Every structure is written in structure tokens, then in C-alpha cells.
Amino acid sequence: MKQNNPDEYTERKTMDKPFDPIEPDGAEDILKPPETPLWLFISEFMENRLAVLGFFIFLGIFLIALSAPWISPQNPFDLAQLDIMNSELKPGAKIGDMTFWLGTDGQGRDMLSAIFYGLRVSLTVSVVSTIIAVIIGSVMGLISAYFGGRTDMLVMRIVDIQLSFPPMLVALILIAVLGQGADKIIISLVAVQWAYYARTIRGSALVERSKEYIEAASCLSLSHRRIMFVHLLPNCLPPVIIVVTIQVARAIIIESSLSFLGIGLPITEPSLGLLVANGFEFMLSGMYWISFFPGIALVFTILSINLVGDHLRDILNPRLKK
């Protein structure tokens, strides 16, 4: 009787089994996307649905403001396109080939087009003023923290005096002195905002200044300008980004308030605040749309910026991380 070889039985059984590849150790880590700081930031940001919603709302508003001359049904500032007979039309009214989806104001301007152009003016003024204020405040804060002593005391006393007054009051005084105009509004907003960035940068720079990499840069006899702007400033930016989102929204509010009072931008450059003011007199007569729709656009703009800024604060501030 022939005996079965156990080795042949094992080999035959192995050949009958389907091939099951075994992944090498670390294969899952290789397939994962690289966890760079930017990727980690994006993944943390996407976890908050409200912040993502706010970001896309603001992105849509920004694109609308950027492309306003091309997507607006009418140029609300071109007198040749305006007809006083089309004034105060209700939303959805149709005259000829043109439909006024949001109605018209007292001058016959299409409200949808006026809102698109108003967003363009409001965002331009607020963003430009914020950028200038960030530059001035960052330079003053770095100088104050890096040199210390009397320089720090002088800069911080100026900042304290600036922050002791309400921002709206300072803006009103400057507009009364300088007059109306987009450039005057920008100057007023810069004067109101720069102190916030100076104090924020100074606080971060004082912490970073005592670290070893700053001492090493000083030992290498690098210039003060290079140490401040190449080594110190990049490590102080996270809290500044949070303040920027807050101050952009605040700049829009201040500019809209000044325009609503009639002392901000001129009639030839109407922002959302001026559009709301133009329809305020018609509210009691039932023509709500002249003020209502610009007000809604203003609310959504500020709300979207605040949603993004609130979540950025949670991400970039390690003390607030859960």
C-alpha cells in the first residue's frame, strides 16, 4: 500500500488555495497623503461645517464683487442706462426685455446690479484698509517688542491712547476733518485698526524673542531688520490672521455705518451702507426692497467672515483646541 507523502499533501493544499497577497509593513502609511502643515490645517478647517459654509458664502460674494461689471444686468452708475420712469418698481417687474429681479430704487437703478457694485466698493475699501493697517501695525509691534525699553513704552502708550476711544468716534472725527471719498475712508479705517495689529504682534513677538533661534541669529551678527522680518515675523503671524478676519468684518461695518449716515462714500461710489440709506425713507411706504436686499447682502457678508474667523481662532490657538 502506497503511503502519502505529507510534504506533497501540504504543497498540493497550498496550490489549491487562492493567492492572498500580504502587504508589507508600512504600506498603509505610504498610501496616505503626506501630513504637511497645510494639509493638517485644511483637514481641521473642513471639520466645522459652519466655517466651510461661511467660507464658500464669502468666496461667492467675493467672486460676485470681482466680476460685477460683467455679470450685472445694468450699470447703475451710467446715467444713459437709467430711466426715472422705472423707479420704485417691485421685485420681478419686467420692462421690455429686462427683468428687475430685486426691483428698482428711487432713481430707477436695478437693485441687483446696485448690490453687486456695492459689494465691490465695500470689500475694496475694507480689504485695502486692512492690508495697510496690518503692515503699519506689524512694523510698530515688531519694533516695540524687539527693541523694548523706551521704544516699547512709547509705542504702547500710543496704542493705549488709540484703543481708549471708540472706533466709530475716531472715524467720525477723521471724516469730518478730511472730507468724503474712498481714500478718506481708507485713511480713517487704517487709523482705527492699526493699533489692534500692533498689540497682537507685540504680544507674540515678546514670546518668540526669548527663544533660542533669535539668540542664534543675534550671535551670527545678522541685521536687526533681517531678524525682525525674516525670523521673528513669520512665527508671529497665526494670531494676526485671526485678528485680520475680525477686523475686515469690523471695517465693513464701520464703512457701512458712515455711508448710512451720509458722511462716508459719495453718491457716485455707493456702498451697501449707502444703498440701505437710500431706501430708508421708503420703508414706511411699503417699498421695503430698496433697503431690505442690500441689508441682507451686508448681513451675509459679515456673517460669513465671522464664521470663518471664529473657526480659525479655534485652529490657530492651541489653548482653545479640545
Descriptive terms for the model:
mainly alpha; single chain; 14 helices; 322 residues; 2% strand; 68% helix; MetI-like fold; two-stranded antiparallel ribbon
Description of the structure:
The protein has helices at 6-16, 27-31, 37-46, 49-66, 68-71, 111-147, 149-163, 167-178, 182-209, 212-219, 224-232, 237-260, 272-280, 289-316, and strands at 93-95, 98-100. It is an all-alpha fold. The protein has a single domain (49-74, 91-320), classed as MetI-like fold (Orthogonal Bundle). Helix 9 runs antiparallel to helix 12 (237-260). The radius of gyration is 29 Å and the shape is elongated. The relative contact order is 0.12.
Secondary structure: elements and pairs:
Elements: H1 6-16, H2 27-31, H3 37-46, H4 49-66, H5 68-71, E1 93-95, E2 98-100, H6 111-147, H7 149-163, H8 167-178, H9 182-209, H10 212-219, H11 224-232, H12 237-260, H13 272-280, H14 289-316
Antiparallel strand pairs: 1-2
Q: Name the CATH architecture.
A: Orthogonal Bundle
User: What Rg, in angstroms, do the CA atoms define?
Assistant: 29 Å
In order across it, which strands form the biggest sheet? 1-2
Instruction: Kindly report the CATH topology.
Output: MetI-like fold
* Beta-strand residue percentage: under 5%
- Please give the CATH class: Mainly Alpha
Q: Percentage of helical residues?
A: 55-70%
Query: Mean pLDDT, rounded to whole units?
Result: 85
Question: N-to-C terminal Cα separation, in Å?
Answer: 75 Å
H-E string:
HHHHHEEHHHHHHHHH
Shape label: elongated
Question: Major sheet: size, sense and barrel closure?
Answer: 2 strands, antiparallel
Give the beta-strand count: 2
**Count the helices. How many?**
14
Quickly count the domains. 1
